[in-house]
Amino acid sequence: MKLGRNDPCHCGSGKKYKRCCMNSVSQQHAQVFDDAAAMLAMNPNMSIDDLNTALQHTVQDRNNQPHPDFCGVTPTQMANWLYAPFDQLHWVSVNTPDNLSASPVMRYLALILDEALAHEGAFKATSKGNLPAKLVKQASELLPEFSVAQYQRNISISEFAGSNEDKFNALHYTRVLAEISGIIYRRSGRYHVKKSAQKQYQELGIQAFFKPMLEAAISKYNWGYLDSFECDVDLRTFGVFMLWRIQAHHSVDQLVQEVMIAFPDVLTAFPADDYAPPEALLSGLIETRFIERFLQFWGFVTMDPRRFINGERIAITVQAQPLLEQTFQFTINV
Q: What distance separates the 2 farthest-apart alpha carbons in the chain?
């Protein structure tokens, strides 16, 4: 039997279905119908045009009210974070830190640019199209200078070192971002730095490429590129929201809960599995794609990879690094 929107919800909460487990779009439609019915009840002679105008004002007012499911931001604010281009985001300023030496991505990019400029703007790629072994070695030697080094126990499985680019995820990620950003390109077996990028680098230093690389990472790069998860959930959509929340409390466990509450439909993208419920799969995606291969690659946070101590599961938290707050400054008051 199909539940009516005013029937008691089948989950046992005691609430009406439209106020509980009905999907979010249907809830919005139900609320509009309820508003229209209330307006017509108070003014039966209201014209369709007047009704539409009144409903538009009502919806606009509702969209500008803090929403508890969004941790207190309004639907209008959330819509901007979900859909606005990188350079049109509101309630958050994205800045270029003065010192980028703690960012693996930017240090690796500097190595690539320096190698090219030392050879008239280009250098030879490997037969597989990767960065040369000399550059890979130089990048690997930078690891002790990064905060993530405190958790690197086995260099053979490190994402921040490797004998070649194929085994060095953070460096490969950097090279891909540099190509997406239009800083470098490969042609005739060589990597070239664009003339305009060479000039920017010589005049402004590595800071010139921080925002273009960051925009590519947040808006253009496929976050699932380096993993083998079968479920394809585009976490980039929630990227700004997740940045705001992880900066607020540093808890990965809490972040996962907040994403599930704010965007419950994301769980429907995962298959039902007794051994790996949707909540666990979502947590794995956020931990891998957002925390490890975005925030850590950029030097924004570090995260202890241990999940159990003395047989007891520990809370998953991150240690925010100075670059995180220096880069993203939120002006949301909740």
A: 80
